[in-house]
Amino acid sequence: MSGLSHLDAQGQAHMVDVGDKAETSRTAIAEGCVVMQPQTLAIVRAGDAKKGDVLGTARLAGIMAAKRSHELIPLCHPLLITKIAVDLAIDDALPGIRVRAEVKVKGQTGVEMEALTAVSVACLTVYDMVKAADRGMRIEGIRLIHKSGGKSGVFEADVTARGQG
């Protein structure tokens, strides 16, 4: 019908059968950022957030979220993930926090949604941890920047056109 793998011939959503697909090593990397006031970034940098360690908590939240993507996104498969790395970096130029997640699996389907979920939840956690200081923060630029493995091969986003995210 539309060429989308999650739609059947009648246009109804369904979970894709990956049982006959080859098991390959697959990687996905996603990124995003939380833009905040310089004063809020200073609170994060100093470790003075009332709720505790902002970057450490967000890192763990991103890791946990990647593992539960199939519970949040209806047509995702549960996966035996082999690696999840969530990195958060202070960026004075934003000002804010840049978040990057890398997820790996050896399996029959990719991990793009897991990487995107990790970044999304890590960003939301940063927001939650310092929202008392800055409710005007913005979560921006969440996107897939790399994917490898599987039938469709390698995808690389144009990182020169990234803008704020």
Give an account of the 3D structure.
28% of the residues lie in helices and 29% in strands. Strands 2-3-1-4-5 form a five-stranded antiparallel β-sheet. Helix 2 packs antiparallel against helix 4. It is elongated.
Brief digest:
With 165 residues, this protein is α+β, with helices and mostly antiparallel strands. 28% of the residues lie in helices and 29% in strands.
Give the overall pLDDT as a whole number.
Answer: 90
User: How would the global form be characterised?
Assistant: elongated
**Low-confidence runs:** none
- Overall SS class: alpha+beta
Separation of the first and last Cα atoms: 34 Å
Counting DSSP E segments of at least 2 residues, the number of strands comes to 5
Number of helices: 4
Estimated radius of gyration: 17 Å
Helical residue percent?
Answer: 25-40%
Reported for the largest beta sheet, the result is: 5 strands, antiparallel
Biggest sheet, strands in spatial order? 2-3-1-4-5
What series of H and E elements makes up the topology? EHHHEEHEE
The fraction of residues in strands falls at 25-35%
